[in-house]
Amino acid sequence: MNHVRALVGIPQTLRQILLSSIESQSILFAERLIVWRQTRCYRFQPVRPQPVASRPETQMLRRPEPVNLQEKYGPRGDNKGSTGGKSVKDYYNGLIKDENIRAQRVQIVNEDGSLGEPMSVAAALRTFDRFVNILLQVAPETAERPAICKITSKGLLQQKLQAKSKTPKDPNHALKQVELNWGIDGHDLSHRMKMVETYIEKGKKVEFILLQKDRRKKKLPTPEKARELVKTIKEQLAEMGAVETKKMEGTLLGRLTIYAKKLKKPSVKALLQTSRLALQRPRGVNPIHHVLLQDRIAFRGMATVFERTKPHVNVGTIGHVDHGKTTLTAAITKRQAEKGLANFLEYGAIDKAPEERKRGITISTSHIEYSTDKRHYAHVDCPGHADYIKNMITGAANMDGAIVVVAASDGQMPQTREHLLLARQVGVQKIVVFVNKVDAVEDKEMLELVELEMRELLTTYGFEGEKTPIIFGSALCAMEGRQPELGEQKIDELLEAVDTWIPTPQRDTDKPFLMSIEEVFSISGRGTVASGRVERGILKKDSEVEIIGGGVPTILTKVTDIETFKKSCDESRAGDNSGLLLRGVKREDIRRGMVVAVPGSVKAHDRFLVSMYVLTEAEGGRRTGFGQNYRPQMFIRTADEAAELSWPDGDDEAKMVMPGDNVEMVLKSHRPVAAEAGQRFNIREGGRTVATGLVTRVLEE
């Protein structure tokens, strides 16, 4: 019986007919893709007959199910010859051996089911490696090991793949081993502890090994410091439920190795296909589509779910530089963590940037989460330095109430006054005062003087100075666990005052969704995330939104995921600090100051009729007035834009605005911004706030 296979090339057709006559039950065609590329010749492999009984099953490059590892490859070899007479290569060593794949060229199965161009095995491996790394970041529980399937027993390839794999010492443990290296830096330690806690929250049993060695050959700390660090880590891990399995003595804690017990999750199936299998399948059919879909769903399910069991309030710490705002924030998380209502974050974990740790000051705003018995709080730690006031304005714009931190040794300072003014102008109605560093002041009359000054200052800026709670304490004492009457007890008193004095705001959930973007970042393998405080409305997953402002055309996209403090949410509501995963949007396409809104609900404009109050010199404003075409900087929501002020009629060039005046003017922004009537804004010049105002009407072109 004759069998014919016709292969088509480009730009002309070549039919290579190979005939073979053997028994009808013993026929197999093994073909290669024939491609004609202008000056290149055809490449093909003739059809060879082969008995059906010995025909190898069509293979795909894949990672087998973990439960089949021992059955298929036997126990793992110990590389010392104790393998029962078999080669160590025949035992499981972290790499998957599949000798039946003989394809010289392969095709990659895309997520949409289409097949990529045929390519060499080496090129495919590089692509495969890159794809698996992405999968490991998106769905770490579905890819059992950070090792790649090997498709040949060539020594060089095996060495390359083995270099990517770290085999656990105990085969009964999971197929994932994580090494966390650190020195004695507080931020680094806190960050690693959070990673460990994440593993435990996912239902894994975690065992750890403490290695007290300096693997980075840095200057060794004192033995007392090393012992203190080891004790701290052991206590934290024990509280999380981890079990110490081994301890190696040394001079410095150098590494913590975590073995996490594996969970039964779907394995990542074939990511590559041979050309033969690709030809046998209809175009556009992806054999691993359902597996990948299951993996993604499983991954989403692994994230902690944000539960709305308490009223949500946004607060923050404001005040002069070096008065202890970040230390107080860390002390609050420490105290609430002892009650099981927060995750403890040290000072270095809040100020994460190297420049912040180097200079010992906060530069950008940090967002912290904690709860009390009555409420759930999103806490913004604002910078106090005058050079970073625009970051403070961005943070204050998201607050429902604020905690003003004042050092007992200094009293009110310039940034204390400016922060109170800005907080008032962005809509903060209630303030709680925390007088910090009380342990450093022995004179009680000094504390009374600070209280009098603060009450007078609060009244000056429109707050209820006589009724505002003022708590005297020491954040450092609370952090170090000494003088509880000034430390822990005062933190409890502060939070009680915040619970009672700052009211729970009424959220505007009936209007269309709007969120002002505060931060933009990318998550490898997932996409671009825009985060900020939701101003109004409700947004659900898979909803379409528009990104407006920034002087760029409106971007229409879809929200594929919503998270609040790294916890998955089905919806984002007014008042939430949410991160929105945006489909098909590049990191460089959006920036702080733009807004995410329901399509058609908001438009960007560049001309507004505004009502302003010009601050006097005593209030920190200008000493002299200004006139027509004055060009300051405008801060509205989280946007920061250059602006120009002029008179509505535009005729009186000589007319001047003096400090202390209330005036109506036309504001023109350098780039269109998403602003509406009733929106508050601030005008700044030369590092100081010179005016505050309200948008009364949008002026159409």
TrEMBL record:
Sorted alphabetically, the Gene Ontology cellular component annotations on this record are:
mitochondrion
What keywords does the record list, in alphabetical order? Elongation factor, GTP-binding, Mitochondrion, Nucleotide-binding, Protein biosynthesis, Transit peptide
Mitochondrion recorded as keyword: yes
Every copy of the Tr-type G domain together lies at 310-506
Q: What is this protein called?
A: Elongation factor Tu
The record's region (Disordered) falls at: 53-87
Family matches, as PANTHER family: ELONGATION FACTOR TU, MITOCHONDRIAL, ELONGATION FACTOR TU-RELATED
Which Gene Ontology terms cover its molecular function?
Answer: GTP binding; GTPase activity; translation elongation factor activity; translation initiation factor activity
Q: Where in the cell is it found?
A: Mitochondrion
List the GO biological process terms: mitochondrial translational elongation
- Species the sequence originates in: Paracoccidioides brasiliensis
**HAMAP family named among the record's database cross-references:** EF_Tu_B
Q: Which residues form a coiled coil?
A: none
InterPro entries reported for this sequence: EF-Tu_GTP-bd, EF-Tu_GTPase, EFTu-like_2, EFTU_2, G_TR_CS, P-loop_NTPase, Small_GTP-bd, T_IF-3_C_sf
Family membership, please give it. Belongs to the TRAFAC class translation factor GTPase superfamily. Classic translation factor GTPase family. EF-Tu/EF-1A subfamily.
SUPFAM superfamilies associated with the record = EF-Tu/eEF-1alpha/eIF2-gamma C-terminal domain (SSF50465), P-loop containing nucleoside triphosphate hydrolases (SSF52540), Translation initiation factor IF3, C-terminal domain (SSF55200), Translation proteins (SSF50447)
